[in-house]
């Protein structure tokens, strides 16, 4: 043999005890990862994922059944009696002025709240990352500290402030509340992402005569697409699914979809032909937004997680 291993004498070859010692030096995580990469584990994970999807599947099927069928049997009975499926509930929902108005209100609250957080958070994150001003580090630590402030602390003070300003029970008040509480996380995430941009790239743009605003919008923002997508998804999901802030600051006659569905449950209890399709629509819209920006979301979170 011509290989190096074959040319070694039996004394020079690693012994069985040495092989076991090398294997023992492998970390517990590495050994677990090697054992959990098989097909059986993947099948188990798929089964767990399907199990967690059961409530969503059940809601979808229940929303396509009549109230009488829902009261008579479980949603799984549709697999033996597919004739139970109907779109009458969705037709009634789309013709319900209250529900459709609440969906429009939810869009009018969610979209501005998301855009304002992205814009203001991007400007502040860039300033904390690349602009020198007095007290920058202390101010950034204050912003990071605001991440742990619970929303409930500001409910009463902001309710009184919005009442004095005349924006209580208005869409503007709800948007401002969500924007204010979304900014600390936005600034933290985007500042860490902007700090990873090479300084040479920014200096080259400044040497070409670019102002700070031109540098921000023409150079920095195109590079931050992944982080901005991740932030936008976080903010969109939080605002769209919010119930507490909407209950307090929104006008009951012009409430978002979460409040409308809660009122349907409280007032009627058995009004399932409205609750089920409305709940599924309110859930599927943020899911569509998430899956549309899934790749940018993952890369953006990983890029902004650490400096």
Low-confidence regions: 1-8
Summed up, the domain count is: 2
| Arithmetic mean of pLDDT | 80
Would you list the SSEs in sequence order as H and E?
A: HHHHHHHHHHHHHHHHH
Number of strands: 0
- How is the biggest beta sheet arranged? none
> Within the CATH hierarchy, at the fold level, what is the topology of the largest domain?
MetI-like fold
Q: Into which percentage range does the β-strand content fall?
A: under 5%
Overall shape: it is globular
The whole-angstrom Rg is 27 Å
CATH superfamily of the largest domain: MetI-like
Helix content: over 70%
State the end-to-end CA separation: 52 Å
The CATH architecture classification of the largest domain is Orthogonal Bundle
Broad CATH class of the largest domain: Mainly Alpha
Helix/strand class: mainly alpha
- SS summary, helix count: 17
Descriptive account of the structure:
- The structure is a single chain.
- The chain is mostly helical.
- It folds into two domains: 40-86, no CATH class; 92-305, MetI-like fold (Orthogonal Bundle), CATH 1.10.3720.10.
- It has 17 helices and no strands.
- Helix 6 crosses helix 16 (272-292) and helix 10 packs antiparallel against helix 13 (225-240).
- The longest helix has 34 residues, at 97-130.
- The protein starts with a helix and ends with a helix.
């Amino acid at each position: 043999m011509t290989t190096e291993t074959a040319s070694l004498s039996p004394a020079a070859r690693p012994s069985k005890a040495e092989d076991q010692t090398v294997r023992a030096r492998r970390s517990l995580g590495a050994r677990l990862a090697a054992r959990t990469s098989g097909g059986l584990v993947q099948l188990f994970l798929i089964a767990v994922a399907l199990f967690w999807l059961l409530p969503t599947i059940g809601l979808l099927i229940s929303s396509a059944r009549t109230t009488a069928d829902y009261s008579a049997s479980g949603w799984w009975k549709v697999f033996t009696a597919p004739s139970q499926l109907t779109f009458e509930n969705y037709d009634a929902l789309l013709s319900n002025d209250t529900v459709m108005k609440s969906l429009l209100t939810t869009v009018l609250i969610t979209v501005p709240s998301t855009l304002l957080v992205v814009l203001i958070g991007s400007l502040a994150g860039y300033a904390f990352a690349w602009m020198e001003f007095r007290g920058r580090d202390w101010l950034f630590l204050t912003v990071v500290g605001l991440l742990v402030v619970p929303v409930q602390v500001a409910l009463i003070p902001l309710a009184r402030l919005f009442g004095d300003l005349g924006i209580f029970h208005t869409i503007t008040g709800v948007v401002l509340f969500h924007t204010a509480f979304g900014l600390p996380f936005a600034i933290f995430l985007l500042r860490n992402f902007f700090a990873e941009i090479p300084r040479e790239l920014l200096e080259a743009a400044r040497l070409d005569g670019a102002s700070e605003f031109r540098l921000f919008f023409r150079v920095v923002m195109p590079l931050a697409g992944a982080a901005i997508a991740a932030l936008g998804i976080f903010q969109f999901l939080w605002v769209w699914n919010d119930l507490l802030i909407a209950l307090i600051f929104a006008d009951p006659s012009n409430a978002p979809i979460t409040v409308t569905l809660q009122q349907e449950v409280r007032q009627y209890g058995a009004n399932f032909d409205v609750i089920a399709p409305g709940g599924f629509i309110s859930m599927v819209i943020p899911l569509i937004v998430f899956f549309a920006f899934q790749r940018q979301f993952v890369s953006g979170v990983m890029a902004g997680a650490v400096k």
